[in-house]
């Protein structure tokens, strides 16, 4: 293979990373603060909430399904963790939220995995239902953590050796999720269900359980994100998680995980989410208005997915 | 019924070739179709019938050769092009939109409209009604197609032939999902078309139908033209010989083992797809399950494996009464099912060979839920060697493998759990001759190692060649069972045709009076 | 196998009632909802209030018309809420520069143009419409924020907002436009080549291709219609409010999908019509209006709607299961 075709092959396989590196070089050349460890950690810290949710949603997407309820779920769980912190203390509040996240995921999983309803509509319905449940729980009021000195602040605000705790939580969770997806029986069945559900059932695998568990994981990951969120804000509003479902999905798609299911990985999701963070951060450092990043995100999503698809298909146009 | 003179052919097929990666699907095929002729195309699965149809209907472009249509050389750029020029394919899977009306479906893509694109429904309905009435059908053209029965939906497709004034109508296995009375109606319609001077190409596996309604029969084998016979002057034996065209024993390998202890027996198994199915299979034995598509063979296999709900029946596993298993339990008991459709049911195409191989037995390759890569690799290597699978490495996705190698991975997947009973549903479908032979040899080897094997196939020579015993299914029932010298093509055909009372028996089928299949067998044996 | 496939394609064996229910269950829901609220509140079944319901329904309703066109093709458009906001902002923001009607026209053009862009990207790239319009949702919303400078824009000439007060009896201009558009597009679906092709493309794309239908052009047209209608809704909103908030229409795309699906149009394509969509939109609006009349808190409304949607899905599932038997 000559050199130019080797380059083409590299771009095809890792086009996203190449484009990302070019972006980083361009921004670094124009902003001295961009390429610093402090700034990098800052970006990852800012993306840790979206990132946590995305870890769970990745499982769901690989089974070939959607979870649009995570934004509302994030709101509800954040409100609950903050409120329960005041009511029963931080320890029990953490437990409640983690269990609560799994229960909410299980409801999705039951309706989608076991009853076989359409995932898009079920999670949309849950989005609405959980918004209502949040208002019912909070009575419409914002909640704040009364005890400002609580150790609960650690999850969102603490640092260990100058590394923000949310970054550590996110990266550790990503490592665990990656292990689960790549190395375990469960992970294997997630890919199998998304790749070919019929063949998976013909292999004696209960695909319903796999789908159910993927949604439970999505709920659990959202609970983790809610803990970081509550801890960082030390309070919660009733709209705090609005729109997260779509940002998360954008990150997952940007990483190259296909919405058809059967392919994708945790590291790709992490990459996609962090890239979104860097685009945001880089554009701000270059002095563009905040919302220009959304325009750029639009362009990047279309370009990345299109090129990915074109490379798999062998030609750019369908 | 007489064959038309060859000097006025509507369609001449001259030396048509078509190659797909790895397969020469059509190799210099030439024949003529006369005006007002019903012309059958027969051949085993994979003989090239479907490819030929697709070439004629504009779905595939041929690599070589010529189509001469109405005396002019033609090449069709698209299905619509072929349709407008007068060649229409009636698909086995109907190409209708259930939400549209009958009339709209008939004229799909060629609706009469005014200048701004508003449908002239009155004209549309009148035209459609005329087309349907010409075929003797009373279907209301304003009905939504989704509200019609399958047979009537098929009539809508056929009405296109009338509507587009098609000179050549191609039927691809049209009776696969029809009941007997519906079949009779279809044959009447086909004769109606013939009366109007249309030419009909009729593809079917069912010899009784072919001898009932066709004028001439063209035989394909392995993509090559074998000859054209006048139906009235030939018989099933001759056509079958042309289809097979080779000495059975040279190609097929029957296991040399003697059947041992009984492994599985089911009695009076019933479901929504079949009834009162009783069969048994012994260690070291190959049981053939023969029947036409839709006879309920796959459903029986899937039920034994637990993929389908059983209404009643008893199952004995190694002589002990056992409840019907779920797939997971079936695998644990030692039942393997190599399903009919490799791509839909057999493999996860986006996974590699290793992952596909171990998929039914994940817990055997894991420690506390964590996959042990070395164990997986060991099995992978073992079966790649054993089955001689050609891959570029353990990471190659099965989607990028050839059909034969994919099928070998399906076998590997179902063998590496060391089953006691293996059910193979159409194991050589869509596979080239070379790989077929290897798979037949392999099946024999499995029985010789003491496995009980059930092979399902609609290819008669295959089933006869590999089985110790053949059970014949028709319309959800087991209608006959043959062993030893009685295991002949004639008997199988008779057993299948037996339950199908085709209207208007013609010369070809008149030779076979409606008697019990076993009586036929006795009379000839 | 073939027999099974066949069975699910034909509903010939179903009793007439089941067949009717399968297509029209939304009207039963609507009737029950209206009956319940009429009993529960004396204010519900008044001409005035019903007019209000229609006006409230109109915005989601107009979005839902375009969504139905796209969904019958088996596609989806998540960007309608953002497109609405952009047209809303352009119609108000450009008034001072180029005059009222040119500004309105610009808003409309932007919506149609973005729809055209979405459709073109989808058919040219072969990407899932969910991904393409998800990107567009984010990007167009960003565009709105950049254009408005993150502030709410106000009309300078308040006579603009008087258009919203035009009414015909209890029917406001907004409601009239909604009903007119719905009827017009039902006519398109039922009577024109394009409309009939929509079903063929959504249900059996191979048959459509065999019949020579230009599938790419067809889909681009429907996405353009969807974008243009989102702009119409945005412009009507600007007349009603006199302001353009950058967050206008946020998550309305989700409500729109809910309304269309509730009506009975299928996400898989090939099935549905504007009557169903009108039914779905009205049911949502009646629920919302009725619950407010009863002074139920906001959260009940959200929860009822979520539960309602899942109920409708379960019902659909139940009927199709019976159909498969």
UniProtKB/TrEMBL annotation, chain A:
This is ABC transporter permease. It is found in: Cell membrane. Keywords: Cell membrane, Membrane, Transmembrane, Transmembrane helix. PANTHER family: ABC TRANSPORTER PERMEASE PROTEIN YPHD-RELATED-RELATED, RIBOSE IMPORT PERMEASE PROTEIN RBSC. It comes from Pseudohoeflea coraliihabitans. The chain crosses the membrane at residues 16-41, 53-80, 92-112, 119-140, 160-181, 211-231, 243-262, 294-311. It is a multi-pass membrane protein. It comes from the Bacteria.
TrEMBL record, chain B:
Residues 499-525 are annotated as: Disordered. Keywords: ATP-binding, Cell membrane, Membrane, Nucleotide-binding, Repeat, Sugar transport, Translocase, Transport. Residues 499-515 have a biased composition (Basic and acidic residues). Pfam families: ABC_tran (PF00005). Residues 11-247, 258-500 form the ABC transporter domain. The keyword Metal-binding does not apply. One of its GO terms (molecular function) is ATP binding. The keyword Transmembrane helix does not apply. PROSITE patterns: ABC_TRANSPORTER_1, ABC_TRANSPORTER_2. Belongs to the ABC transporter superfamily. PANTHER family: CARBOHYDRATE TRANSPORT ATP-BINDING PROTEIN MG119-RELATED (PTHR43790), D-ALLOSE IMPORT ATP-BINDING PROTEIN ALSA-RELATED (PTHR43790:SF3). This is Sugar ABC transporter ATP-binding protein. It comes from Pseudohoeflea coraliihabitans.
TrEMBL record, chain C:
The keyword Membrane applies. This is ABC transporter permease. It is a multi-pass membrane protein. The chain crosses the membrane at residues 26-46, 53-72, 92-117, 129-148, 168-190, 220-239, 297-315. It is found in: Cell membrane. The keyword Zinc does not apply. Pfam families: BPD_transp_2. Keywords: Cell inner membrane, Cell membrane, Membrane, Transmembrane, Transmembrane helix, Transport. Coiled coil: none annotated. Its main location: membrane.
């Amino acid at each position: 293979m000559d050199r130019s075709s080797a380059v083409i092959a590299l771009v095809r396989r890792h086009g996203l990373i190449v484009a990302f590196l070019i972006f980083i070089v361009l921004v670094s050349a124009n902003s001295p603060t961009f390429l610093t460890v402090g700034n990098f950690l800052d970006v990852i810290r800012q993306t840790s909430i979206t990132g946590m949710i995305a870890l769970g949603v990745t499982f769901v997407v690989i089974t070939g399904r959607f979870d649009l309820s995570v934004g509302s779920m994030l709101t509800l769980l954040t409100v609950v963790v903050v409120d329960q912190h005041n009511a029963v203390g931080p320890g029990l509040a953490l437990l409640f939220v983690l269990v609560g996240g799994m229960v909410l995921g299980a409801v999705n999983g039951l309706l989608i995995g076991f009853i076989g309803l359409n995932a898009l509509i079920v999670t949309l319905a849950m989005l609405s239902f959980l918004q209502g449940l949040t208002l019912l729980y909070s009575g419409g009021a914002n909640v704040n953590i009364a005890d400002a000195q609580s150790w609960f602040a650690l999850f969102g605000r603490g640092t260990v050796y100058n590394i923000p705790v949310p970054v550590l939580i996110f990266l550790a969770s990503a490592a665990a999720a990656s292990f689960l997806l790549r190395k375990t029986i469960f992970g294997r069945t997630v890919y199998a269900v998304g790749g070919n559900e019929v063949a998976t059932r013909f292999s004696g695998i209960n695909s319903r359980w796999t789908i159910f568990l993927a949604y439970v994981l999505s709920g659990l990951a959202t609970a983790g994100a809610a803990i970081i969120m509550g801890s960082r804000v030390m309070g919660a509003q009733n709209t705090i998680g609005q729109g997260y479902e779509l940002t998360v999905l954008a990150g997952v798609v940007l990483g190259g995980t296909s919405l058809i299911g059967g392919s994708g990985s945790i590291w790709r999701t992490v990459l996609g989410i962090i890239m979104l963070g860097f685009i945001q951060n880089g554009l701000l450092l270059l002095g563009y208005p905040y919302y220009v990043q959304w325009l750029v995100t639009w362009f990047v999503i279309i370009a990345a997915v299109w090129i990915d698809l074109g490379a798999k298909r062998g030609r750019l146009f369908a | 019924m007489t064959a038309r003179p060859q000097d006025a052919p509507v369609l001449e097929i001259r030396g048509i070739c078509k190659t797909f990666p790895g397969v020469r699907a059509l190799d210099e095929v030439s024949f003529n179709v006369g005006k007002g002729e019903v012309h059958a195309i027969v051949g085993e699965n994979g003989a090239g019938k479907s490819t030929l149809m697709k070439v004629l209907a504009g779905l595939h472009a041929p690599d070589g050769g010529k189509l001469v249509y109405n005396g002019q050389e033609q090449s069709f750029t698209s299905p619509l092009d072929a349709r407008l020029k007068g060649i229409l394919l009636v698909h086995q899977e109907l190409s209708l939109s259930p939400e549209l009306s009958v009339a709209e479906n008939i004229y799909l893509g060629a609706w009469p409209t005014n200048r701004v694109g508003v449908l002239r429904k009155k004209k549309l309905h009148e035209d459609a009604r005329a087309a349907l009435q010409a075929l003797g059908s009373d279907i209301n053209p304003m009905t939504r197609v989704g509200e019609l029965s399958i047979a009537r939906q098929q009539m809508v497709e056929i009405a296109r032939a009338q509507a587009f004034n098609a000179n050549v109508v191609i039927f691809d296995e049209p009776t696969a999902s029809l009941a007997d009375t519906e079949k009779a109606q279809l044959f009447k319609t086909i004769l109606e078309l013939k009366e109007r001077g249309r030419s009909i190409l009729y593809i079917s596996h069912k010899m009784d139908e072919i001898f009932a309604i066709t004028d001439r029969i063209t035989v394909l084998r392995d993509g090559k033209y074998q000859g054209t016979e006048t139906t009235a002057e030939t018989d099933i034996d001759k056509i079958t010989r042309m289809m097979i065209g080779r000495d059975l024993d040279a190609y097929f390998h029957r296991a040399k083992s003697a059947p041992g202890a009984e492994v599985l027996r089911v009695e009076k198994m019933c479901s929504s797809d079949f009834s009162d199915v009783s069969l048994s299979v012994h260690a070291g034995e190959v049981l053939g399950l023969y029947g036409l598509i839709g006879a309920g063979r796959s459903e029986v296999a899937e039920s034994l494996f637990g993929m389908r709900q059983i209404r009643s029946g008893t199952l004995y596993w190694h002589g002990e009464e056992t409840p019907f298993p779920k797939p997971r339990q079936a695998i644990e008991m030692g039942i393997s099912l190599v399903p009919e459709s490799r791509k839909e049911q057999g493999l996860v195409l986006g996974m590699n060979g290793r992952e596909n191989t171990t998929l039914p037995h994940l817990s055997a390759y894991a420690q506390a839920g964590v996959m042990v890569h070395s164990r997986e690799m060991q099995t992978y290597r073992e079966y790649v060697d054993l089955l001689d699978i050609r891959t570029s490495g353990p990471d190659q996705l099965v989607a990028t493998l050839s059909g034969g190698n994919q099928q070998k991975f399906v076998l590997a997947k179902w063998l590496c759990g060391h089953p006691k009973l293996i059910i193979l549903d159409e194991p050589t479908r869509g596979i080239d001759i070379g790989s077929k032979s290897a798979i037949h040899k392999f099946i024999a080897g499995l029985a010789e190692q003491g496995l009980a094997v059930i092979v399902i196939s609609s290819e008669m020579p295959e089933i006869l060649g590999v089985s110790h015993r053949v059970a014949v299914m028709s319309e959800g029932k087991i209608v006959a069972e043959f062993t030893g010298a009685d295991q002949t093509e004639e008997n199988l055909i008779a057993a299948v045709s037996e339950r199908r009372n085709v209207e208007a028996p013609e010369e070809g089928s008149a030779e076979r009076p409606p008697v019990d299949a076993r009586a036929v067998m006795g009379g000839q044996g | 196998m073939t027999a099974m496939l066949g069975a699910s394609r034909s509903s010939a064996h179903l009793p007439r009632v089941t067949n009717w229910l399968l297509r029209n269950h939304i009207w039963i829901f609507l009737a029950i909802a209206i009956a319940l609220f009429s009993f529960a509140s004396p204010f519900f079944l008044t001409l005035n209030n019903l007019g209000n319901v229609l006006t409230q329904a109109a915005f989601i309703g107009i979005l839902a018309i375009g969504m139905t066109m796209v969904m019958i093709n088996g596609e989806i458009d998540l960007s309608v809420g953002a497109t609405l906001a952009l047209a809303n902002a352009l119609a108000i923001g450009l008034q001072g520069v180029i005059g009222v009607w040119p500004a309105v026209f610009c808003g409309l053009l932007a919506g149609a143009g973005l729809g055209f862009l979405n459709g073109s990207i989808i058919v040219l790239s072969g990407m899932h419409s969910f991904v393409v319009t998800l990107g567009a949702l984010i990007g167009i919303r960003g565009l709105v924020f950049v254009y408005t400078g993150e502030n709410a824009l106000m009309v300078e000439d308040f006579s603009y907002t008087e258009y919203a007060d035009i009414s015909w009896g209890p029917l406001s201009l907004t409601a009239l436009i909604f009903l007119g558009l719905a009827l017009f597009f039902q006519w398109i679906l039922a009577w024109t080549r394009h409309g009939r092709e929509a079903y063929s493309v959504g249900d059996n794309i191979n048959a459509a291709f065999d019949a020579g239908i230009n599938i790419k052009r067809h889909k681009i047209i429907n996405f353009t219609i969807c974008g243009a209608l989102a702009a119409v809704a945005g412009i009507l909103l600007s007349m009603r409010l006199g302001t353009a908030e950058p967050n206008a229409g946020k998550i309305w795309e989700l409500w729109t999908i809910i309304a269309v699906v509730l009506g009975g149009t299928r996400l898989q394509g090939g099935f549905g019509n504007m009557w169903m969509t009108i039914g779905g939109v009205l049911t949502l609006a009646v629920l919302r209006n009725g619950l407010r009349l009863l002074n139920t808190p906001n959260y009940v409304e959200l929860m009822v709607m979520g539960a309602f949607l899942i109920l409708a899905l379960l019902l659909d599932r139940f009927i199709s299961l019976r159909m498969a038997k």
